[in-house]
Structures are given as structure tokens and as C-alpha cells.
Backbone:
């Protein structure tokens, strides 16, 4: 059995390791990342498959080798991203080695449910960012 103090120490060390990898994003990188995300969301809202797919990273394009498969995957599994209500950008964190960035987006799904979408963006050889994944976290229901 792990003692509580030891468990807290392990968790603290793990958290420090994660924070060492990601630091606050530079303002220009954060603005670029937000522009990429907003452009992709607008492409989804306009059913522009080609534009939405153009913002996906090479890794995502390997998993979904054509825009139709990609678009279907987003429609099925990421409704809040595909058809958002309101959305707002939160914190940005950059990888210490400059290879990527995580951007928090607070987003309301089409059913009114609030979500936090953690966008992972990957820096490309030309310096641009492409979306390499989105982790969706459902907001807790307000307590009454």
C-alpha cells in the first residue's frame, strides 16, 4: 500500500514534469493557433469539407486519408466542434521544445451542453500550426 504522503509526492513530481514540458504560449503562437481553430470551426459550420480538412495535421490525415472520412468522424464524435453554439478561447500552453501547443476552447454544443475542448496543435516545418487532435471534456452540471 502506498502511504498518502508518498502518493502526494508522486503526484506532485508528475505534475511538475508535465508543467516543465508545457509553458505559457507566446502571444503570436497563441494567436496563430486560435486563428487555425476558429477557421476550422467556421469551415465545419459552412460544411466546407476541404477547408476543415486542410487544418488537420499530417498524422490526422494518415488516420483519415480523405476529407469525407475525416468530416464523418467529426460529425459523429465531435458534435460540439462540428456545430458549436458559442465558443471562447481559454489558456494556451506551448511545448518547451517549440514543437506544439495546447489551446483550451470553452464550447457549447448544439444541445446546450458546455464542453472544454483541448486542441493539440503541431508546428509544421514551415512554422504553421495544424490540429493534431481534440480532447473533449464535458463540463460538470451546475449544482442547484
Residues:
Amino acid at each position: 500500500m502506498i502511504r498518502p504522503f508518498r502518493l502526494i509526492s508522486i503526484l506532485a513530481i508528475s505534475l511538475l514534469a508535465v508543467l516543465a514540458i508545457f509553458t505559457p504560449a507566446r502571444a503570436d503562437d497563441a494567436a496563430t493557433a486560435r486563428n487555425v481553430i476558429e477557421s476550422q470551426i467556421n469551415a465545419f459550420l459552412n460544411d466546407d469539407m476541404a477547408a476543415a480538412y486542410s487544418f488537420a495535421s499530417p498524422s490526422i490525415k494518415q488516420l483519415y486519408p480523405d476529407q469525407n472520412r475525416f468530416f464523418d468522424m467529426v460529425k459523429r464524435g465531435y458534435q460540439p466542434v462540428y456545430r458549436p453554439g458559442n465558443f471562447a478561447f481559454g489558456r494556451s500552453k506551448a511545448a518547451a521544445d517549440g514543437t506544439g501547443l495546447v489551446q483550451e476552447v470553452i464550447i457549447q454544443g448544439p444541445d446546450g451542453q458546455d464542453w472544454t475542448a483541448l486542441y493539440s496543435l503541431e508546428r509544421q516545418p514551415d512554422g504553421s500550426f495544424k490540429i493534431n487532435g481534440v480532447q473533449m471534456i464535458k463540463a460538470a452540471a451546475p449544482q442547484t
In short: Residues 29 and 101 are 8 Å apart (CA to CA).
